[in-house]
Amino acid sequence: MTARDRTRAPETPGSTRGPDRVPETPGAASGQDRTPETPGEASGQAPAPQGRPGTPMLDVRDLRVTYRNGERAVPAVRGVSFTLDRGQTLGVAGESGSGKSTMALSLLRLLAPSAEVSGEVLFEGEDLLTARWARLRAVRWSAASVVFQGAMSALNPVRTIGEQICEPILLHEKVGQREARRRAAELLDSVGVPSRRAGSYPHEFSGGQRQRIMIAMSLACRPDLIIADEPTTALDVMVQAQVLELLGELVRESGIGVIMISHDLSVLSHMCERLAVMYAGRIAEIGPSRQLIAEPRHPYTRALGRAFPTIGDPASRLAPAGLPGDPPTPSELARLSEGRGCAFEPRCSEAVAACRTETVELWPSGPRREAACLRVLEGSGT
Amino acid sequence: MKPVLEVRDLMVTYPPRRGAAPARAVDGVNLQVRQGEIVALVGESGCGKSTLARALVGLVKPTGGQVLGGGEPLGYSAAALKAYRRHTQLVLQDPGGALNPRQNVFDAVAEGPRLHGLTDRLGERVHAALARAGLRPPEEFAGRFPHEMSGGQQQRVVIAGALALEPSVIVADEPVASLDASVRGEILKLILELRDSLGLSALVVSHDLGLAWNIADRVAVMYLGRIVETGTVEEVLLRPKHPYTRALLSVLPDSDERPVLLTGEPPDPAAVPGGCRFHPRCPLRAAEQDTLCDSRDLPVLTGDPSGSSLAACHLVH
Ligand SMILES: Nc1ncnc2c1ncn2[C@@H]1O[C@H](COP(=O)(O)OP(=O)(O)OP(=O)(O)O)[C@@H](O)[C@H]1O
Ligand SMILES: Nc1ncnc2c1ncn2[C@@H]1O[C@H](COP(=O)(O)OP(=O)(O)O)[C@@H](O)[C@H]1O
Ligand code: SF4
Ligand code: SF4
Ligand SMILES: [Mg+2]
Ligand SMILES: [Mg+2]
């Protein structure tokens, strides 16, 4: 049974979810040697070219993105590095403005011309930042596709959703109209949108339905990597559980790699094996999801975790928990990039004097983990 | 005390698509929001929450039933709607779509006040609204355009736009869905503060049951155009009665219950099942094989908030 069939099958109440379904792959930490055998390769279903052995599917090195509008420069991503293997899942958390979307969209050069990008994005060994446009267009959809944040603005309002899902199939694969329509119908059913509504326009669907249509579209050409920017943010819990189940099946059974962006730590920890927490354009903490949630080493990860209420917990009843203060403004960010000091210092409850003067970078904070906090060096960062 | 906002037997039916039946997006709803009260409306995608929210602010004309503001039936002339919206503001779901890309932040927030002739000390009003919505310092943001901001920042502009009129009721459709947890906490705190200091009432539409736990007094659970369970937050979230509410709570990541992942045909308002509308997906009905569920219609729940929680189900009371 394929992942797509599974989601349509009548579900028994006790179907898997939660921590149990997080695939555990050894050697997944950034900067470490990895075993090339991921579950995806073992199943042999992924269609695209195999990378060189020992080369990760995606290797991002010192990625930097600055938006320039006249005089103003917004350093949105300020040096991000990570790797992702086939069939692996990386969650990217962080508050709005921390650069998650900018980072993700820059991987496939989907940003506006005002964005200045540097670093390397090696996909199967090939640098996408310097690749020719024709090559990049081939990679998009068929090798790596994106589920955009805000489904309404990403869908074309004057074309039916069926036409829009068929488009990449017809463009990238040698199939006829009929086969493309059949695939589109199958995809729609697989994400829980009745395929008989293929002739409807985006505005005729609810927000959640549109998001699922976007996911169906991203799967159209059976890519190896899906970059999903807040794919479940606007969804209710039931559909979110279904979408996570769907993405989880895809990872397990077809070996698709996923970079999933969300500000919701609980969603990421259930979906992704590894987690990167971004703050002000950099990775604040990275490592195995469950460890990061259970034992955060960076004060920001800790604050994020507390902000999700548990129903029934009297402490959070009529008492929402936020993080006091505001993220750095673009001008503060520009200053930070030049000087020293921790970007989180103004909001950090554990800051010491050195946090304002020392250079902070990602340091090992445990097996397969790193955190950008001075207290980790002291050994007191827990 | 009169509710500040009320709907009685509300129906909103969208005209049929070719070959299909009309979509009964809101199919008989009674609901009250009292002075200083925060009510959360929860339910899955497509169940009619946004349609109900839009009807509450007069953006959609009901096909049946009534909307009442401060006890008065809502009129649909341009003048009546304008007066009504001075006090009842809508905060929208999709911030990208809610903002005009060519309008800067100041003008977006000033739009409401200008429309209502509140141009006295407009700058002060706009900056105060921006700061309250968490865009601080306001001067840094006033000149920006939507594309120069992240999604969360855009949502704060939308909220500031509603706050600028100092309304007495806010109808907020997923006001924090696109915000990160720390900002979410701040915005929710803000809604609570506005309630405590100004007596602001709010109907908050959300798929996030944690939000209801964080800020709401009462909660209404909607399924396929109807409210299927309503009561205080403690009653509904800690002692849920309706099988649908129980399923929703069970799929939360922190839940101790075994997750009940509802599948089957996604609910379609153009084909509302007879009998209990939840019966094709109901785990309780499946277990009990009860024929009542398939054939006997359920009465519409009253909107009366004074009694204990109510559930629209043949088997639980
Ligand atoms: N303009 C329209 N024409 C026809 N059908 C519509 C229209 N707008 C909404 N619908 C349908 O009405 C139903 C209710 O939609 P609504 O937007 O109110 O849902 P919702 O509960 O807000 O969902 P979400 O949580 O996804 O935002 C859905 O089945 C939707 O497809
Ligand atoms: N097109 C743009 N022009 C200028 N600044 C932008 C643009 N897009 C985003 N930004 C800024 O870059 C930063 C990161 O934004 P974004 O990547 O959208 O964050 P996230 O996805 O984490 O919410 C923010 O300060 C935002 O205001
Ligand atoms: S380096 Fe200092 S300011 Fe930064 S997170 Fe660690 S303790 Fe806080
Ligand atoms: S009436 Fe029957 S089908 Fe409907 S919710 Fe109750 S048990 Fe389930
Ligand atoms: Mg984003
Ligand atoms: Mg909605």
TrEMBL record, chain A:
SMART domains: AAA (SM00382). InterPro entries: AAA+_ATPase, ABC_Ni/Peptide_Import, ABC_transporter-like_ATP-bd, ABC_transporter-like_CS, Oligopep_ABC_C, P-loop_NTPase. It is a peripheral membrane protein. Residues 60-305 form the ABC transporter domain. Pfam families: ABC_tran, oligo_HPY. GO terms for molecular function: ATP binding; ATP hydrolysis activity. It comes from the Bacteria. GO terms for biological process: peptide transport. Its main location: membrane. Signal peptide: none annotated. One of its GO terms (cellular component) is plasma membrane. CDD domains: ABC_NikE_OppD_transporters. Keywords: ATP-binding, Cell membrane, Membrane, Nucleotide-binding, Transport. Residues 1-58 are annotated as: Disordered. It is found in: Cell membrane. Belongs to the ABC transporter superfamily. This is Dipeptide/oligopeptide/nickel ABC transporter ATP-binding protein.
